[in-house]
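Section: protein folds

Sequence with per-residue C-alpha cells
===
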Amino acid sequence: SLYTGLMRREADAPSKVVLDFPREGHLYEVMTNRYIGHGRRFDHDLATGEPVKAGLPTLEGKSINLAQDSVSGMALFALMPYKIADVSVDAESARQGGQLKVAVKVEVEGAAPGKHVLHLDVRDPEGRQAEPYCRNIVTQNGSWEGTLPLALNEMTGRWNISVREAVSGLASST
C-alpha cells in the first residue's frame, strides 16, 4: 500500500492536481472513505474533493510544491494493490468476568489481503458505547482475533460489536 497526502496552503495555489503513482492500484480517498478507481494516474480537485472526470493539463509542466499549497483543500490517498470488498466481525457469547472472543476479517478482490486498521466499537445492551472495550486493531493478512476481558459486574444482555475499516469505510456489526 502507498499513502499520499496533499494540502493546499495558499488560496491561489492550483486545486486541480494529477496523481501519478509508480504503479497501478486501487485508489481510495481516506478522509471520505471513497473508492476512486483502478489505475496509475488520477485527476483530483482539492477544492471540491471530487475526482476530475476529464483529463487535466499537467499544470504547464510545473510540479506542485506541497510546502506552498493552500488549506482550502486537502486529501489523503491510499493506493492499494487490491479492492477492499467487505469486512466482517464475529463474537462468541461470554459471561461476566469472562473473555469475549472477537474475530475480524477483511475480504479483498485481486490479491491476498495485507495489514488493515479497523476501529472496534462496543455498545452495551442499552446502546451506550463501552469505551474500555473500544480500540483500533490491525489485521495481519486480513484477519484479527482477540479477546476482551469483561468486568465481573458487566451488564448482561445483547451487546453490539462493530468494526469499520479505515481506508474504505466498510463496516460490519454483530
About this structure: The longest strand covers residues 16-29.
